[in-house]
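User: Please fill in residues for this 523-position structure.
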């Protein structure tokens, strides 16, 4: 067998480099490189403590789904299903990357492969061919692996009956659930070990169901380290009345409205109980109050995006370690994240409202927006007590200009921009992670009142582009010692494709050095 036959071309590594990674049990490659062992039929993460297999028994893959598609099942010792997949797809804007991000967000569950292909303007056959070439698995396999990993976490961490777990994880039937779990893990769902009652009690009840809204207590995994304090500080600075509850005590849990297909979920993040999981990851204790169990995965994905739990701190550290400006900043803030938008449309509208005013004033106006234009929903279970749903772009676009001004207390020009953006979103402008980033930027910049600074912030938080870079930001100019956006772009050229994280580091350093936020605080 040749090296090419044993190493997937999408990895950008030859066989020797891949084998060195698993020989050294290099945890930096966990989630980005997977080892399939032909003599045992299992796949592992590179840091697996098991004895190193012989080279002739090794195959390497870029995703867990590719391993399963090739006939391997997950290792019971290193649990490769517990580590987030590669964040490399977030840095790319091609068809394969957009498809991966949309599948991760549940597009196949919602619309099937034909619906996803139509959204991406390609045929289902072409989409499958591209994904198999790039990742080693088609869209259905990627979606099945996503559901299986979510289901295993629910089995281990909750008291839900297996039939409910199948529903919560997006499976169409209990039989499909059982077949997929056997394919992924080599055993039936009923054979997987569930946490003891004592362990669940130590972290809070795993499940609380009623005739109304189900509630789950989970631990979301992210790569270590995780800088919790800056993330919580960001959520504090951007808490919207009616959408967030953020106590002043930094050890206290925060609560956030999270939008799901069935209505408004509520996520509770227990910052005081974040702990290392012992396998190179960190466990984030969260509680979810859901409109229905079918909203479990969408709520989890939105929360992961909000907290940037799929980031790879090691990769970022390597990218910035040689830069004289960023190296000391990232050394002082290991595990810094770039929080995303829980709802891209809501964030975009909020950025427009926050232009040229302080963060405190922006929060007030955004609270008015949520209060006046929350999505209407007559289903009782879709509503979360004490929390508002996301603003409805269609309602905003249909509101007369003077009425909009009066409701929000904003200038006419700001109201015109807000209505124009809301109309574009209602008309199909996609600002989410699976969107065509170039097209989204272009359409944003066509709207009067939206310039490069606003478009790049929306790209960073909403589109999830790690290379988005608001070069006109005054804080960045001050930190870089430059006077123009063009100079800021030149200075950041070596930071590609992570200029957004570089900006986050510079913003965090600024916020720690000043007590008075200004207009150009990071949005």
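Assistant: Residues filled in for all 523 positions:
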């Amino acid at each position: 067998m040749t090296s090419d036959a044993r190493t997937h071309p999408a990895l950008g590594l030859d066989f020797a480099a891949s084998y060195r990674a698993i020989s050294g049990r290099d945890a930096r490659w966990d989630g980005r490189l997977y080892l399939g062992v032909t003599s045992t039929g299992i796949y592992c993460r590179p840091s697996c403590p098991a004895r190193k297999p012989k080279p002739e028994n090794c195959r390497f893959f870029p995703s867990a789904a590719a391993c399963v598609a090739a006939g391997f099942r997950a290792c019971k010792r290193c649990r490769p299903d517990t580590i987030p997949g590669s964040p490399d797809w977030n840095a790319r804007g091609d068809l394969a990357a957009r498809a991966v991000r949309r599948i991760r967000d549940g597009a196949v569950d919602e619309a099937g492969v034909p619906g996803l292909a139509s959204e991406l303007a390609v045929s289902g056959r072409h989409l499958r061919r591209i994904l198999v070439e790039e990742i080693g698995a088609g869209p259905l396999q990627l979606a099945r692996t996503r559901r299986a990993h979510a289901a295993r976490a629910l089995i281990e961490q909750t008291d839900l009956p297996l039939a409910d777990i199948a529903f919560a994880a997006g499976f169409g039937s209990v039989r499909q659930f059982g077949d997929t779990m056997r394919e992924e893990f080599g055993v039936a769902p009923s054979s997987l070990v569930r946490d003891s009652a004592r362990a669940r009690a130590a972290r809070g009840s795993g499940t609380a169901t009623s005739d109304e809204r189900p509630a789950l207590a989970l631990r979301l995994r992210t790569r270590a380290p995780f800088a919790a304090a800056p993330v919580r500080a960001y959520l504090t600075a951007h808490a919207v009345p009616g959408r967030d509850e953020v106590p002043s005590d930094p050890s206290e849990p925060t609560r956030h409205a999270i939008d799901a297909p069935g209505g408004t979920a509520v996520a509770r993040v227990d910052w005081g109980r974040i702990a290392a999981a012992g396998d190179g990851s960190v466990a984030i204790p969260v509680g979810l109050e859901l409109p229905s169990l079918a909203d479990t995965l969408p709520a989890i994905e939105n929360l992961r995006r909000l907290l940037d739990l799929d980031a790879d701190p090691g990769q970022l550290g390597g990218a910035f370690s040689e830069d004289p400006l960023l190296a000391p900043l990232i050394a002082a803030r290991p595990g810094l994240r770039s929080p995303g938008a829980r709802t891209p449309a809501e964030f975009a509208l909020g950025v427009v409202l926050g232009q040229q005013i302080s963060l405190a004033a922006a929060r007030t106006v955004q609270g008015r927006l949520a209060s006046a234009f929350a999505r209407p929903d007559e289903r009782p279970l879709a509503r979360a007590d004490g929390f508002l749903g996301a603003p409805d772009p269609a309602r905003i676009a249909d509101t007369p200009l003077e009425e909009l001004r009066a409701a929000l207390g904003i200038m006419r020009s700001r109201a015109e921009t807000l209505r124009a953006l809301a109309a574009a979103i209602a008309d199909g402008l996609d600002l989410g992670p699976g969107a065509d980033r170039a097209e989204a930027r272009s359409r944003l910049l066509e709207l009067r009142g939206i310039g490069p600074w606003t478009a790049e912030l929306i790209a960073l938080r909403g589109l999830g582009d790690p290379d988005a870079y608001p070069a006109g930001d005054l804080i960045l100019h001050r930190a870089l010692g430059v006077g123009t956006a063009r100079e800021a772009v030149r200075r950041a050229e070596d930071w590609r494709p992570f200029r957004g994280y570089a900006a986050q580091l510079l913003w965090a350093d600024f916020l720690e050095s000043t007590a008075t936020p200004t207009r150009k605080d990071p949005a």
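For context: Residues 515-522 have pLDDT under 50 and may be disordered.
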